[in-house]
Write a sequence for this structure.
């Protein structure tokens, strides 16, 4: 694949989202040392109370030639809205969303731009993510989706792989894809599953989503929201359930909403009952509350669904080809049904 010279390098806006990231501040220097001649850093501080923005300001003084913008939000408005706010300050042809618990290789942008500029059908791409704890090991990347909306691990092939969606930890986006998708993240999601919803809308407009192995990021998975919290916090369970069901409702055509959404709801009911049977009552109730929250949101979701379906260019037949089949989803459903019984 041909390399880019400086005149061919489009402006890239790196949106670095931070929430209480003082413990990760040493990683941020990697964004100032990139081997790419045309980029800006937009640091969005999402209501932090640990003075972590001061560490970023120190880096700005250390590297005065790198264009930066510091966006301060006085309270935590959620992952989705904070990134949308950061996007307002972006001037690039491409936008790179990155979490505060990520360190990047010096060729992080250059490698990605080379792929994007050679294929105009790519709308979104993810960096290849390695573990920050052991940089020789792949990070767990959940880039595949089955037909009832559950995430599955992606196994890299070594080349540029097409996947269903890019995780928000290191998501590279063509700005035109955002416009055609009707905007970046749905702010009603607050956090969780907004990346799936956005990438689905991008796909509906005919773009591909890929993982680029030469664009390398090192990720401390669970650094901002720990794995323990994600598995034990009712807020996570409730939001994740509601957002996943909302995503299916908005983005599938009517036939597939009728076909797959009831199965997904059934899976959540069984999950909630299983958690209750294991005396994990707060989580079980949160799962069932997530279903109720989705139902209450349906009037508003209908309006969003109308816009998505009006703007779509691609049929569900094409979308389903990149999703894992119903057999995989049903195997999980049967497994959980047996656990409940």
């Amino acid at each position: 694949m041909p390399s880019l010279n400086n005149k061919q390098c489009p402006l890239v806006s790196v949106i670095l989202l931070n929430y209480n990231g003082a413990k990760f501040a040493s990683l941020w220097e990697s964004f100032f040392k990139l081997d790419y001649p045309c980029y800006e850093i937009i640091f969005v501080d999402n209501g932090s109370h640990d003075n972590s923005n001061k560490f970023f300001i120190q880096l700005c003084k250390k590297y005065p030639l790198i264009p930066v913008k510091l966006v301060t939000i006085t309270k935590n408005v959620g992952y989705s809205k904070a990134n949308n706010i950061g996007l307002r300050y972006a001037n690039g042809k491409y936008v790179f969303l990155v979490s505060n618990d990520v360190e990047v290789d010096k060729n992080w942008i250059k490698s990605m731009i080379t792929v994007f500029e050679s294929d105009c059908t790519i709308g979104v791409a993810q960096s290849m993510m390695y573990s920050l704890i052991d940089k020789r090991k792949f990070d767990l990347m959940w880039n595949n989706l089955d037909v009832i909306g559950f995430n599955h691990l992606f196994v890299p092939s070594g080349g540029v792989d097409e996947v269903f969606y890019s995780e928000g930890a290191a998501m590279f986006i063509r700005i035109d894809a955002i416009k055609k998708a009707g905007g970046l993240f749905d702010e009603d999601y607050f956090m969780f599953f907004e990346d799936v919803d956005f990438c689905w809308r991008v796909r509906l407009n005919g773009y591909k989503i890929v993982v680029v192995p030469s664009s390398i990021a090192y990720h401390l998975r669970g650094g901002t929201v720990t794995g323990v919290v994600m598995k034990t916090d009712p807020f996570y369970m409730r939001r994740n359930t509601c957002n996943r069901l909302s995503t299916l409702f908005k983005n599938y055509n009517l036939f597939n909403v009728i076909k797959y959404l009831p199965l997904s709801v059934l899976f959540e009911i069984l999950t909630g009952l299983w958690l209750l049977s294991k005396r994990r009552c707060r989580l079980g109730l949160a799962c069932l509350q997530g279903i109720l929250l989705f139902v209450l949101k349906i009037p508003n979701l209908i309006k969003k669904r109308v816009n998505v379906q009006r703007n779509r260019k691609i049929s569900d037949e094409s979308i389903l080809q990149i999703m894992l089949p119903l057999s995989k989803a049903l195997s999980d459903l049967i497994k959980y049904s047996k656990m409940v019984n």
Summary: Residues 228-340 form one domain. The longest helix spans residues 281-311. Residues 104 and 111 are 12 Å apart (CA to CA). Confidence is low (pLDDT under 50) at residues 226-230.
